[in-house]
Amino acid sequence: xxxxxxxxxxxxxxxxxxxxxxxxxxxxxxxxxxxxxxxxxxxxxxxxxxxxxxxxxxxxxxxxxxxxxxxxxxxxxxxxxxxxxxxxxxxxxxxxxxxxxxxxxxxxxxxxxxxxxxxxxxxxxxxxxxxxxxxxxxxxxxxxxxxxxxxxxxxxxxxxxxxxxxxxxxxxxxxxxxxxxxxxxxxxxxxxxxxxxxxxxxxxxxxxxxxxxxxxxxxxxxxxxxxxxxxxxxxxxxxxxxxxxxxxxxxxxxxxxxxxxxxxxxxxxxxxxxxxxxxxxxxxxxxxxxxxxxxxxxxxxxxxxxxxxxxxxxxxxxxxx
Length: 321
Fold this sequence. Notes:
By secondary structure, the chain is of the alpha/beta class. It has a single domain, classed as TIM Barrel, CATH 3.20.20. The chain contains 11 helices and 8 strands. It has an 8-stranded mixed sheet. The longest helix has 16 residues. The chain is globular and about 50 Å long. The model has no long low-confidence stretch (mean pLDDT about 90).
């Protein structure tokens, strides 16, 4: 696999600083039951990295002592971590809002048949990846029969109230482009998704989030192999909008890897770019117990244009209409 960090380090991306910390985005490990081309963490069934119980308990301590509003749990497939339910249940008892970034197919994995019911019982917000509303496109990006398993997962969630008006159980879908181009306008694509999924599969959901593919990991390496890396990065830079800078997720979020080390975002985590700030040594969860990070600089590189290009892109979808 081609290393993309050397191609991204030199940048003229605007300098930005952190605001108050609101969200802890925790990667519970890189193991996944899928191996998608666009996956920026190179997750797969063969990965062994998993967050251990003592680190998860430190996550819970940070959430309590800092009174953070949101725990955003990701992977890999975060549910494959054996301590997933311990983390979620303890966080919910502390009053933290929990987001599970679910790939949908894990809901049908052996041993996880009750996972959807568990998520509903803890009132967890589910943000699920579904890169298209057609079988051909989804299976091309994520693997054979993934679309059918995803629809099955969505129907399970719908049956429990997820995505239904008045249930209070939020179900959001995530779209990634199939190639080196920007996502279409989020609002219009959301209408298309809702129409197609309702008419053909009886599926309902709350919001669609459009995310730009980052030129890192598998996707970035594929671009290098195809000779399209520079043209894609140029596309992102040319579509940059200063207006999106205020809304980028790194201003209020810290990304935590499976060992407990801190990064400005999930993408920097995968590139090995440590949290920018007042210390030169790697920062760990324990540092958050006495340092709020507000006002600290954010580490940037050329891939950051993926978050500010066009309508913008964040873990919560587009930044602008």
